[in-house]
Amino acid sequence: MTTPSTARSAVLTLSCPDVPGIVHAVTGFLVEHDATITQSSQFDDLESCNFFMRVQFAPTTDAGLDVAALCQAFEPVAQKFGMTWRLEDTSHRERVIIMVSKFAHCLNDLLFRNSVGDLNLDVVAVVSNHPDLKPLADHYGVPFKHIPVTKDTKDAAEAELLDMVREQNVELVILARYMQILSDNLCRQLAGHAINIHHSMLPAFKGAKPYHQAHDRGVKFIGATAHYVTADLDEGPIIEQDIQRVDHSMDADTFVARGRESECRALARAVRWHTENRVQLNGNRTVVLQ
Ligand SMILES: Nc1nc2c(c(=O)[nH]1)N[C@@H](CN(C=O)c1ccc(C(=O)N[C@@H](CCC(=O)O)C(=O)O)cc1)CN2
User: Fold this and answer.
1) pLDDT at position 195, please?
2) CA atoms of 10 and 33, how far apart (whole Å)
3) What are the positions of the active site (predicted)?
């Protein structure tokens, strides 16, 4: 009979230097702890000699999975192989803050997908440097926090955001067309826990107005890129990208309109994969295990 601290399904993600015996150690650990594998995926990066694995598992007994006890028991295995690892109940609802400026499409898409169960987020708050999108947050019953940002208030604004993150145990900050550049300090504090949607197919057309840059260049495809946020603008590890065809008959405004679909798709997939523990960092790149 499962109890509040036991799970019907859990996921272990790990990365470590590639040596013989990792998979054997992991699968042996699961057997020893009355667990059976339901999904498993791995990648051996020959370039970095790093190994990546994601294994999802269920209990073989009615007792369920005691996630806390499994974490304690797995520590010695992790230390033996020098693993970076995470073991979590798959039903865990990630606590997130969604940041936005004035463009509503990505925020609306995330809140709608979450409302119909396509995403499994606990949206703690919507934070914006403008008041405009409060009605949208109200519609979905999500708290809205307006934190204006000017050159003089930026440090205080970022400190207020970090206080919210810490006080409310926020696990992920989603920049859903938040048009302010985060400071180096804030990026360090949120490293690996902040995802941005950039409205171009990076590395092309970084910075502001990427659709106008793309139109001026005469591209035949436009796209969007979801990436982890780093201090270097638009340089963070890429999680997901989406593209669509455009043509000579379209003006820049049409690019902007068509681009919304790609931004929503790329961001939703990136957030889903991150919150399902499918994304691991590999230097300045990511490994996404499906
Ligand atoms: N440290 C980082 N902060 C942010 C990133 C990032 O990659 N690293 N991504 C941006 C989003 N973005 C592009 O995707 C972006 C946003 C804003 C700007 C910009 O030039 N902003 C101007 C102000 C614009 C305004 O007030 O409307 C500025 O901050 O001076 C460029 C790219 C989110 N933050």
Assistant:
1) 98
2) 12
3) 234
4 confidence band (pLDDT: 50, 70, 90)? low
CATH of the domain at 43: 3.30.70.260
Average pLDDT, the chain: 97
Q: Give me the sign of the Cα torsion angle 251, 257, 260, 261.
A: negative
Flag whether 154 is in a domain: yes
| ipTM score | 0.94
In this structure, the strands spanning 194-198 and 221-228 are antiparallel
Residues 114 and 140 in one domain: yes
> To test the ligand 1 pocket, which listed residue (102, 233, 267) has its Cβ within 8 A of the most ligand atoms?
233
The CA 219 to ligand 1 mean position distance, Å, reads 23
Residue 81 region by backbone torsions, left for phi larger than 0, else alpha for psi between -120 and 50, else beta? alpha
Residue 203 lies in a domain: yes
Q: How far is the CA of 207 from the centre of ligand 1 (A)?
A: 7
Closest by Cα among 161, 237, 234, 240 to 192: 237
- In the three-class reduction of DSSP (H, G, I as helix; E, B as strand; rest coil), residue 232 is classed as coil
Q: Is the pLDDT of residue 90 over 60?
A: yes
Instruction: Report residue 153 as tokens.
Output: 């208030």
Asked if residues 239 and 273 have their Cβ atoms less than 8 Å apart, the reply is yes
* Helix, strand or coil, per DSSP, at residue 48: coil
> Do 116 and 256 have their domain in common?
yes
**Alpha helical stretches, state H, the chain:** 22-32, 67-81, 105-115, 134-139, 154-167, 184-189, 210-217, 252-275
* Alpha-carbon span 205 to 98, nearest angstrom: 24
